[in-house]
Amino acid sequence: MSIVVRDVREHELDSVLALNNAAGPSILPLDSARLGRFFDTADYFRVAERDGTLAGFLVGFGSRRGHDSSNFAWFAERHPDFMYIDRVVVASRRRGGGVGRTLYADIQSYAELRYPVLACEVFIEHDNDAARIFHGSFGFREVGQHVMPGTGIRASMLTKELCSYPWVRETYGDALPDQPWLARPRPLGEACLATGTR
């Protein structure tokens, strides 16, 4: 069955919140107010569906918009321009089925047209070898570590250079061609094109 990636809908936020808070210690819990702020401010907030059921989601913030995360601030001190993956969550029953890879491919296709670097972190405390291997297979490399204030959680800070960005920037500057597949996720007042992959 295909995996469909599309913009989150406001009426789905309760389901997204439940999915986030059931993910375990490798994902920080959320409350509905913070998730609502993500919905209002994130550059990228998309869900993956498999067989018509919510299978995962990914939230990302571009450095030009800003974000109140200490991990985002860590990257901002070191990179003038980047796309930050705040969180990716895959339903436990869907792990290992390609949902995470599909979400990462989708955010990379969005980010590489707009930012030179994709950034994220993996918590070290939980001995998360699977997450480190997953990110390494996507070309992410550790560029430092950061202890998150108020939590004591140590994170491995990862970045990936997006090799398409320089060519896109030199060729198009800030004006990408007017094509549906180049549209920003969650454009104001418009529906965004859903993509499906196998």
Automatic annotation (TrEMBL):
Transmembrane segments: none
Source domain of life: Bacteria
Name under which the protein is recorded: GNAT family N-acetyltransferase
Domain N-acetyltransferase per the UniProt entry, residue ranges: 3-163
Record's keyword annotation contains Transferase: yes
Sample GO molecular function, one term: acyltransferase activity, transferring groups other than amino-acyl groups
Keywords on record: Transferase
